[in-house]
Design a protein that fits this description.
aminotransferase; Aspartate Aminotransferase, domain 1; AspAT/PAT-like; Aspartate Aminotransferase, domain 2; 14 helices; 389 residues; L-aspartate:2-oxoglutarate aminotransferase activity; 7-stranded mixed sheet; Aminotransferase_I/II_large; transferase
């Protein structure tokens, strides 16, 4: 007996990009001290007020089947949040609640792709993107956003790509931290309109913007955009698995049919906590933003003046991307040696595609003192490697 080709080829026979992360976890199990800066999970638990609301809701009986598209109250709250952030009128029928942003991505590609359709996505990219497209029986095609262009995607590069049914973009971007400029967003929207493509906009970091401003693709092209949102990064709810898709009502209806046949919705007590987060969690979100802003600024101060390592201009998201090409090593080789020799785990840029080769992604998910020490060690290690080259 064999597995389906769809499931057996999710990673196209290659790595899923998480090798360093898994190696670091194994080292920890063996008793070695490792500072893990690989994964974008917070170094704190979900706020007590939200956990208390989950508990209250569960004890009060919201433990049975919940409304599959999302509870009316939560859909309405998310719709109001999306409308406020995009300037586009949004109602409950424009929102589907999903089991996290990843489930929202999968649902969106299932909604827009027929088997064999091509979907474009920007490299560097979050590691699950190509596998998610394959899971929906699509053909993933990466289009590079080059370091020389500040990792801003260029329409001229998209114009040489094959015909496609959808274009996936992610801003603020994971892994680079780059926020796509207004001109970039409008250029991508015009490109998609010219080719009659869907736009799938992963904007889960829309509240984490350090410089400049975030422009939602729903603000630019609402009729062809499926907007992905989540409470994982904004309200420390990564394990709660609460996300959404916002888009045209007809498509949301189809995606609700998909939910009936896959997840069958999200637990009601989690949805009730999510409703509280959306309607009354502004202080939680603001405090988290300030935490990551302080950490980013502290890391930049520590790295200033180290010529052996460059910093990609990070305008958003909870990461820094470091350029280590001056050492002569690939990002993967540097990350492996850094882990083995210094006990610091970071993600190599190659985990996110080839456009970020020779780079590292550092998650700002530890206290400032630990991050500053790690940055100093990374810079020192890079200088040693450069001098030895």
């Amino acid at each position: 007996m064999r597995a389906s080709r769809r499931i057996a080829t999710l990673n196209a026979g290659g790595s899923d990009g998480w090798g360093i992360f898994l190696r670091a976890r194994e080292m920890e199990r063996q008793g070695r001290a490792v500072l893990d800066l690989t994964i974008g999970d917070h170094d704190r638990v979900t706020p007590r007020v939200l956990l208390d609301e989950m508990h209250r809701s569960a004890v009060d009986g919201h433990t049975g089947y919940a409304s599959v598209p999302g509870t009316p109250a939560l859909r309405s709250a998310i719709a109001a949040r999306v409308a406020a952030r995009t300037g586009v009128a949004t109602g409950s029928d424009n929102v589907l609640v999903t089991a996290g942003g990843q489930a929202a991505l999968f649902a969106s590609f299932m909604g827009v792709l027929d088997p064999g359709d091509t979907a474009l996505f920007i490299d560097p990219y979050y590691a699950t993107y190509p596998g998610t497209i394959r899971a929906a029986s699509g053909v993933p095609h990466a289009v590079a956003a080059r370091p020389s262009a500040g990792f801003q995607p260029q329409v001229r590069d998209l114009e040489t790509a094959p015909d496609a049914r959808a274009l996936l973009i992610n801003t603020p971007n994971n892994p680079t931290g780059v926020v796509y400029a207004e001109a970039t967003m409008r250029g991508l929207a015009e490109f998609a309109e010219g080719r009659d493509m869907w736009l799938i906009a992963d904007e889960v970091y829309d509240g984490q913007v350090w410089t400049g401003a975030h422009l939602s693709m729903r603000s630019v092209a609402p009729e062809r955009t499926l907007l992905i949102g989540s409470l994982s990064k904004s309200h420390v709810m990564t394990g709660s698995r609460l996300g959404w898709v916002a888009g045209p009502a007809e498509m949301i209806g189809y995606l609700a049919d998909l939910a009936v046949n896959t997840t069958y919705g999200v637990p009601g007590f989690i949805q009730d906590a999510a409703q509280l987060a959306v309607t009354g969690g502004a202080e939680i979100e603001a405090e988290l933003v300030q935490t990551y802003r302080r950490r980013r600024e502290a890391c930049l101060r520590t790295l200033a003046g180290h010529g052996s390592i460059g910093v990609v201009p990070s305008a958003g998201a909870m990461y820094l991307m470091l350029d280590v090409r001056a050492t002569g090593l690939s990002g993967e080789a540097f990350a492996l040696r850094l882990l083995d020799e210094r006990g610091i785990a970071v993600m190599p840029g190659e985990s996110f595609g080839q456009a970020a080769a020779g780079h590292l992604r550092v998650a700002l998910t530890r206290p400032e003192a630990a991050l500053n020490a790690a940055m100093a060690q990374i810079a020192e290690f890079a200088e040693e490697l450069r001098d030895a080259a």
